[in-house]
């Protein structure tokens, strides 16, 4: 037989290009002339999936299902009219690629196209992660422990939660200035004003995905996710820091106090 597995990734790309031509109604060459080409983006997404594989119990291979594409301001403005449709086509092609590799994803493949202010024209950045709809687990890369404490348990039935025996022994939470309480769950919690954030705050000074809290049952680590206005703890700008009870976290105009019971 002439068609072997080595041809499959090519066929995904060919189908993608064909759909793109229909998407922009013959203006394909003109629209993408001088800007980053969507096929390059799909190639990079495939490499990201390959790089962030995690072997699960039962021998299944979990790969990221959420891909954030940062484009240069010029490329972003040129492709803006097609961004939603392009994201949909990228997601469909990535899902096909993942299916052909017999890999597993949690839920649907999601692609978001955003403006990356620090990128030169023609440059782009792909960020991949496992998005569960409730928890966001960073895609495992070199040095990332994909063992049970760090990686939530996954089962084919759609259950997703901390591994058995890893229930948090402490009640940790954030308290806002107006008295609202936000309990923290084991694993990762993304704070932001976008709909992909687990903890959404309606503050225009906060980025869509502003910061992430990682709780392993012992300590909570706060990481700034490259936010526009930065993240402050006790008045000091931080990139990543382990929190202590009573620490004051400031994001935009919102102040949250870190509290621990038990």
Automatic annotation (TrEMBL):
Domain of life: Bacteria
Gene3D superfamilies: 2.60.200.20, FhaA, phosphopeptide-binding domain (DUF3662)
The keyword Protein biosynthesis appears for this protein: no
Keyword Membrane: no
Domain FHA: 189-238
Keywords, ordered alphabetically: Phosphoprotein
Alphabetized PANTHER family for the sequence: NUCLEAR INHIBITOR OF PROTEIN PHOSPHATASE-1
Protein name, per record: DUF2662 domain-containing protein
